[in-house]
């Protein structure tokens, strides 16, 4: 398994900004990728806001297996931290997210009112690792394009406040990874979904591992799009087969395995291979 680590300087700065602004917010929206809900969480980040009411959003539910997402929502739902599946592209789940935010803020508002303080909108902080779709979630909740969106990590570099209706103010924060992956499988999954900058890992290694991971659930799609009717134990051989099927050749009819790896990753991230969950829910009696 490839060794992957990525924690550039701007993430350390973003972590400090988050820590400074945490006292200003009432509710924290933690956004993860529904295809790997545990790997895309950041325990280090959440420790900084553990004392705040929270809502957990499993975004990109449109790319994940629906049954697995339903089970993940059930397993991750906790008192004081509801879990909601969201398709930020179509908006499915957006109403539930806002309802959960308002329920989380209600006790805070009630406490103010009891003290005779003037009510104000809920201040909400959106946090998560890079490329889980924070900005897309915000734009969906706002109903307009207010936050910069891009299918790559690191699009949001600074904090920005965005108003949602009359009663919610949302603080968009840059994506922040853990400083070090204790489990390299997490690093692999995050590289596959695009949360780690492509330039800092070997795309051949990640694409090869990804084909193995999705072979069973997406075999027919891999046969149709990549010509893979069987999976070779050698990941490089699978990428070479992709080259020949898609005509990815250099001068002299030489296969371009790097280009094939980039193609596999791109088509997976765009959902062209079908809906799949890379991190299936564990057995019901397993501790998360």
TrEMBL record:
Belongs to the TRAFAC class YlqF/YawG GTPase family. MTG1 subfamily. It comes from the Bacteria. Required for a late step of 50S ribosomal subunit assembly. Has GTPase activity. Residues 11-179 form the CP-type G domain. This is Ribosome biogenesis GTPase A. Keywords: Cytoplasm, GTP-binding, Nucleotide-binding. It is found in: Cytoplasm. It comes from Symbiobacterium terraclitae. It holds the Pfam family MMR_HSR1.
